[in-house]
Amino acid sequence: MWQAGNTFRLKYFNNVCERIKKRSMGCWKYIEEMGLANWSRVHFTWERYNLMSNNIVESLNNALLPARGSPVVALLKFIRKMLARWFESRRKKISRLVGDIPIAVERELMKRFKGALGMSVPAVGRSWDF
């Protein structure tokens, strides 16, 4: 169960799940009813704990699938075009930004700001007098 929950690759997840099914179909039915996205990294679609847990190499491997098997020069051209598309998309998104920071970041800052009200930050080197 732990292996299935912590794997990032669907292929490995499926292999581990097959072993779980062979060992205990009742266990498999129980964890499947919970919803795979609730306990497995490979099926989770959003950020957990405000951090992305997927490996960047996995993301790039997936993006490079169409060019796999190409000659080196063609692969480099594919990567250049792909990065150009990504950068242009990001540039367009940022050009629509109002203010200095994205709305989602501002919301997160405001949540944390409200939680920090009333707290004090002592100067560096100052003793902690309670």
List strands and helices in order, with pairings.
Layout: H1 2-6, H2 10-23, H3 25-34, H4 56-63, H5 72-95, H6 103-116
Helix pairs in contact: 2-3
Question: In words, what does this structure look like?
Answer:
The chain is mainly alpha-helical. The protein folds into two domains: 1-54, no CATH class; 69-117. Helices cover 58% and strands 0% of the residues. It contains six helices and no strands. The protein has helices at 2-6, 10-23, 25-34, 56-63, 72-95, 103-116. Helix 2 (10-23) packs across helix 3. The termini are far apart. The mean pLDDT is 82.
Main attributes of the structure:
130 residues; mainly alpha; 0% strand; 6 helices
Number of helices: 6
How many extended strands? 0
- What does the main sheet amount to? none
In whole angstroms, how far apart are the ends?
46 Å
Please tell me the total number of domains: 2
String of helices and strands: HHHHHH
Using only C-alpha atoms, the radius of gyration works out to 23 Å
Strand content: under 5%
Report helical residue fraction.
Answer: 55-70%
Model regions low in confidence, pLDDT < 50 over at least 5 residues: none
Overall pLDDT metric: 82
Please tell me what the overall shape is. Answer: flat
The structure class reads mainly alpha
